[in-house]
Amino acid sequence: MADPRRLRRRTVLAGGAALAVATQLPAAAAAYPTFDIKADFGAAGNGSTNDTTAFQQAAAAIQAAGGGTLTIPAGVYVVGRQTHTSGVTPYYVMEPIIALSGVQFLHVKGSTGTVLRLAAGLRYGSFHPTTGARYDPPTLPFTTASYGVEAGRMIEVLDGSDITIENLELDGANDQLVLGGEFGDTGRQLKATGIRLLGCTNVRITDVHSHHHGLDGVTVGQPGHTAADPATPHTITRLRSEYNGRQGLSWTGGRGLTCTDSAFNHTGRAGVRSAPSAGVDIEAESSVCRDGLFTGCEFVNNAGSGLDVTHGDSGYTRFEGCTFWGTTTYSAYTTTPGLVFKWSTFNGTSNVGFGSADAALATVYADCHFEDRPWTNGQVYRGTYLVTDAGNTGQNVRYADCTFVARELRSIWTNDVTVQKHFVRCTIDHRYAALADGGIQCHPWGARLVACTFTEAMGTTTRRWYVHLNDVVVENDVDGIPTTVTGPAVRWGSPSGPVGTIAEGPYG
Questions:
Q1: CA distance 135 to 162
Q2: Cα–Cα distances in Å, from 332 out to 240, 307, 415, 484?
Q3: How many other CB atoms sit within 10 Å of the CB of residue 47?
Q4: Could you tell me whether strands 46-50 and 332-334 are parallel, antiparallel, or unpaired per DSSP bridges?
Q5: What percent of the chain is modeled with pLDDT above 70?
Q6: What 8-state DSSP symbol labels residue 228?
């Protein structure tokens, strides 16, 4: 489970939400009408009546006014519908639910107990365009549009501004979908999303639970954005996005995404799984991703990596006080520039991140903790090493004041001796007592070690392991504190190498 200190903090924040100052809406709000989904459009909200038509009518009224407020009282609103028209492909065509474009103000306002639930039995995946039968493509990728059946986007806004979505549960019911064959790269890469906002700015998503969608809990992006373009602020607070098929959150472009006290957990663990099955995927699509900030967030037990930042002009994001917990693959896997992690915990193997000759672009870890501690289901992803340079050489990657606890695997693998990695005032705690006598516990090739401590907590053993050296430089810190090896099991340089203070200088 996540760090209990942060969970207490999250509980206090969530419990205090009812006491918080009301959402500050733009002054322009007064210029737009307010609608009630039950009083004005006849929605039943009884958990059985399909209320798609009511939401479509509400969206049409807001679209005609150029914006507005939609109040959704407590209740379970079944939404989502597909139609078939002879000669039209795909065979099943998704109807919109709340779909808007170009509105200058939007406030979707739920309350305690407001649930939008996707109707059971909708098709999703590849279906034959003339017969409607499930179609399993012989090879992937498969992207023939006439075969791709989408399940539904609950709230979709294109090119809007001043958007607030709050106090809602969006249930994608992906275990109730009728699955067709795969579509896209792997899985079913088709629209089935809780919230999809493209080309929008000044967005606020607060106290939303978006779960069990076929694709993403939330997708936000800014097509065609460049690093020189103005900021497009998106603020996400207390979002719980879990059990979705592809991502808890896909950020596909823009400048200025802030996520606070949110959870992006259990992706790919329910009725649908599509790659990369990450908690959060930051992947610019014909755009850039810049100025991201995640504080107090969770990325736990996803079928893919907790955090995936590997494609497009992406990165440039800070993570503070976050928990990354990989149970079947990497806790975090990142290969793009400008990432900073502070006060964060990584349980399960992670990779070093992005290395660069420009140190300002290389990944930084400060006051972070790395461990292969199992999650509550007893699972944690263990590669051969706790931290590895898979995907990148790690040039100028910096770990400062970090701790590494290797319980049932080795600690650090960096292999490229032509580039330097930096470990400053770090503690590497080796506990892998099952390693064969004389084996390597740590492989920090090309590393600069400043005032680091190699220690062990494995009980009594007569075995010896060692820190394997090649183009390693050891330095004392500015206060003269040296690098030390506590021993007796872990040794410096070889199974019979020294313990104690390690002199400054090059090794290997």
A1: 42
A2: 19, 5, 19, 29
A3: 11
A4: unpaired
A5: 94
A6: T
Q: Give Cβ neighbours of residue 179 (< 8 Å, ≥ 6 apart).
A: 124, 125, 134, 188, 271, 272
Cβ(266)–Cβ(210) under 8 Å? no
The C-alpha atoms of residue 487 and residue 499 are separated, in whole angstroms, by 6
Residue 31: helix, strand or coil by DSSP? Answer: helix
pLDDT in tens, 396-426: 999 999 999 999 999 999 999 999 999 999 9
Residue-wise DSSP of 233-292: -EEEES-EEES-SSEEEEE-SEEEEEEES-EEE-TTSSS---TT-EEEEEEEEEEEEEEE
d(CA 437, CA 300): 34
Cα gap 179→458, rounded to integer Å = 49
d(CA 353, CA 332): 9
Distance between CA 247 and CA 270 in Å, rounded? 12
φ, ψ for residue 131 (rounded to 5)?
A: -110, -20
Q: Which two tokens stand for residue 64?
A: 């005609």
d(CA 167, CA 169): 7
- Structural domains of the chain in order of their starting residue, each with its CATH number: 33-307 (2.160.20.10)
Q: Has residue 390 got a pLDDT over 80?
A: yes
Does 346 score more than 80 pLDDT? yes
Choose among 124, 118, 122: nearest CA to 180. Answer: 124
What does the angle CA 280 – CA 259 – CA 70 come to, to the nearest 5 degrees?
Answer: 105
What mean pLDDT do residues 171-193 have? 97
Mean pLDDT for 190-219 is 98
Are 263 and 242 in contact by the 8 Å Cβ rule? The answer is yes
Token representation of residue 4: 């209990």
Task: Please name the residues in contact with 296: beta carbons below 8 A apart, sequence gap of 6 or more.
Answer: 6, 9, 10, 13, 260, 261, 262, 320, 321, 322
Nearest alpha carbon to residue 408 among 389, 427, 380: 380
For the record, the structure tokens of 434 come out as 């099952």
Strands 82-83 and 93-94: antiparallel
Q: Quick one: pLDDT at residue 1?
A: 38
Instruction: Evaluate whether 301 touches 327 at the Cβ level (below 8 Å).
Output: yes
The answer for residues whose C-beta is within 8 angstroms of residue 28's C-beta and 6 or more apart is 67, 104, 105, 162
